[in-house]
Amino acid sequence: MAEQTLGLAGTTAWPAEFAERYRKAGYWVGQTFGEALREWAQRSGEATAVVCGERRWSYRELDQRVDRLAAGLQQLGIQPKQRVVVQLPNCAEWFVVCFALFRVGAIPLMALPAHRLAEIGYFCQHSEAVAYVIADKVGSFDYRNLAAEVKAVAPTLEHVLVVGESGQFTALADVDAAPSQFPVLDPAEVALFQLSGGSTGVPKLIARTHDDYLYSVRASAEICELDASSVYLCVLPMAHNFPMSSPGTLGTLAAGGTVVLAPQPSPDVAFPLIAREGVTITGMVPPLALLWLDAAAKRKAELASLKQILVGGAPFGADTARRVQPELGCQLQQVYGMAEGLVNYTRLNDPAELICHTQGRPISPLDEVRIVDDEDNDVPLGELGHLITRGPYTIRGYYQAAEHNQRAFTSDGFYRTGDLARLNAAGYVSVEGRAKDQINRGGEKVAAEEIEQHLLNHPAIHDVALVGLPDRFLGERTCAVIVSNGVNINRREVVQFLRSRGLAEYKLPDLVEIVASLPKTGVGKINKRLLREQLSAGSVPA
Ligand code: AMP
Ligand code: DBH
């Protein structure tokens, strides 16, 4: 079958017969995000779209701000299909920036506030970004210093736009013009870049189209039963696929509800916001759910308006899952999703058994989920195997990654999630493990190879393996197991070294072990399974 590509070079489209099937089913409706916001503004006008601190914007106001910024971006010279790296903390401006980019046809890349030079530099280079949007400062971290470093390594970067004090760069507030003519865009084209947690040396970029992403957003809102009375509290970093689309802030806007942005996810910040705004729904990773459960013991009254809470991104134990309804006083929806596409939810009226013991079933009747053995043969129903998937909102290939795509996708277009799971007769998925070389640190994914490659550049390090070890709170924490060159090295030095290479804080190893040698497999690869066993048993040769 000839490979289809989207208009943007380096992207893989769905084969024509699949695209037709998804359109016929009414899933791809041929609308862009820019048009969707216009429709939402016409429908919900004066209703509150976004609450950020003391600011409250109606749908109409949001739409108007987007128009002005979009016109300003056009005056700056931003063109359709150009890439723009967006790295903002949870703030209302994030919506204005992203939708303005959608409206002019430029493509936002959803960076996280935790990313540093190693990640942002790579995103700008690999996507050939022309602009980078930041906040001035968050806490003690000054993103303008980071931007100066990024500019030095990213030759395509022409603009740095700053929310707040612009310093040497351009203030976002000054990018403003009277709304003008916006280009007519193809909804089948790329709308945005999401990021993969990955398992290889460099993070992968995920190109999502207007058609496919909007479908996942609208269908998620429906499954989570959102409507105009829904109030969604965004506690996770808002650029992440989960709080953005499952059903997240975009699902809430699609349903005419209100998005409340939390600057931090801790109970001390989030609980008063829930009480003040009458929050009905939120989404979080398992470690945060544990924190909330503990805090709720004394503060349940503040959560009175909460109807449901989505928990996903990492394994959520059934015992903890059972505590949600009685202790938080709201329904749990487990969600197993990925920025590459496929998202599963337990449904609100599912029996407790399914809600506590499974990660739900796919969004779409046209999602194809298979559980296969090492040779890609389907395993009998109920058996454990590799979960592979394709469907109306699951990508067919990473951006500009032809070689990696050969391994990450089957020849007939199924994405290899790297997750070990089983299916029940009703199509519910239970995720029970992982075959990919990635550590899931409470929902934050760390690609072992990425960290190992950085560490191999340290003169004192001869060989290294990054492995995950069980952690009561995070689920897993990272341990760098190092064979040294005979020179002493400790965790402080390892962490300092990785920081100096511009790595995000969550990727820094929690533990460092120095060993005499690493166990190898027959073909000479590091045997991580054995290594993990040795570490837990305390029997690694020191
Ligand atoms: P990413 O591909 O970086 O978006 O991360 C998606 C991955 O997160 C999945 O492939 C799983 O490994 C993991 N994940 C997401 N949700 C869950 C969940 N509810 N339970 C277990 N693992 C999950
Ligand atoms: O972990 C994830 O990436 C994730 C989890 C839940 C996700 O992308 C999603 C829901 O959409």
Automatic annotation (TrEMBL):
One of its GO terms (biological process) is siderophore biosynthetic process. Residues 37-399 form the AMP-dependent synthetase/ligase domain. Residues 450-525 form the AMP-binding enzyme C-terminal domain. One of its GO terms (molecular function) is nucleotidyltransferase activity. Its EC number is 2.7.7.58. Pathway: Siderophore biosynthesis. Keywords: Ligase, Nucleotidyltransferase, Transferase. It holds the Pfam family AMP-binding. The keyword Manganese does not apply. Gene3D superfamilies: 3.30.300.30, 3.40.50.980, Luciferase, Domain 3. Belongs to the ATP-dependent AMP-binding enzyme family. This is Enterobactin synthase subunit E. It comes from Herpetosiphon geysericola.
